[in-house]
Amino acid sequence: MLLLDTRTVPRADRAEAFRAAMAEASLPCRVEHRTPTERVRARMHLVPLGRTAVFTTDASPFGLVRTPRHVQQDGPAVIAIAYQARGSGEYAQLNHEQLVQGRDLMLVDLTAPYAFGCSVGGGSRSLMVPHEQLALPVDVIRRAVPRLRASPLHGLVRTHLEEVCGRAEELAADAGALALGSATAELVRALIVSAAGGERNRGAVREETLLTRVRTYVGQQLTDPALTPATIAAAHNVSLRQLYRLFSDAGLSLEQEVIGLRLEQARAQLVSPTGRRRSIAATARACGFTDASHFTRRFRQAYGISPRDWQGTAPTSVDPVW
């Protein structure tokens, strides 16, 4: 959902429109623009994924301050985990100061005062997650604020968030959007627990979240035809027996997980503008299938229609909306 595009707002009204959009997407705060009002530029989107939401901002230089007075106002208890897609940001909360740039993540507890600014403008991408969904004590969340980089899960979560935020509107239109939001929130929860818990608890956290991390990894590697149980196990430092037992204990099949995700990806691609012009074999290869005949057989078994028929007759409503 587009919250704000200042190109459609009179210059004199842009600062107020920015403040209102920021309050709608997040929570009330003081906005400090670092350019004259007539030069304020911003484009904001808010895309729900179940109980979580992706919030993106591309803007001219600005600063945000959430004061103790703001915090005392009624509002939902949420966290934001964010990164800079362009430029850098200066962040301060709970006696922690951080320059956010490159591969850095920042964790903001919106139930506490904080300050954030982009002195030269840029692009910010964040996932908003309710405290209730995280099911973590506030002190655990706040202990993690300055320590995200210390967690071995930091890179995995950063990569996952970049994919989710970059394709938010497309993913939100998919039937799996609710499950994706829940899985992403679980990854964020694991990162917070890992960062807050210190060395003693990291092994337990990694074990507890192994299934989520494996499923996320599989989703990121679907297009690789060399993705096998052996490569998945090696990437997570477990044996094949442990990997199969992990899925079996959860009532899942690793093979069906991979095949099912690849088929869903192919199903969406076949009815996209590009996919309609591409051969069935090319789409199969793009989704990690090495044998077009095998792909066609599995597709028909799953959906009761051949890939070619689906490509030609599927409703346009399944196309990405952006």
From TrEMBL:
Molecular function in Gene Ontology: DNA-binding transcription factor activity; sequence-specific DNA binding
UniProt KW keywords: DNA-binding, Transcription, Transcription regulation
Boundaries of every HTH araC/xylS-type domain copy: 212-313
SMART domains for this protein: HTH_ARAC (SM00342)
Name of this protein: Helix-turn-helix domain-containing protein
Native species: Modestobacter muralis
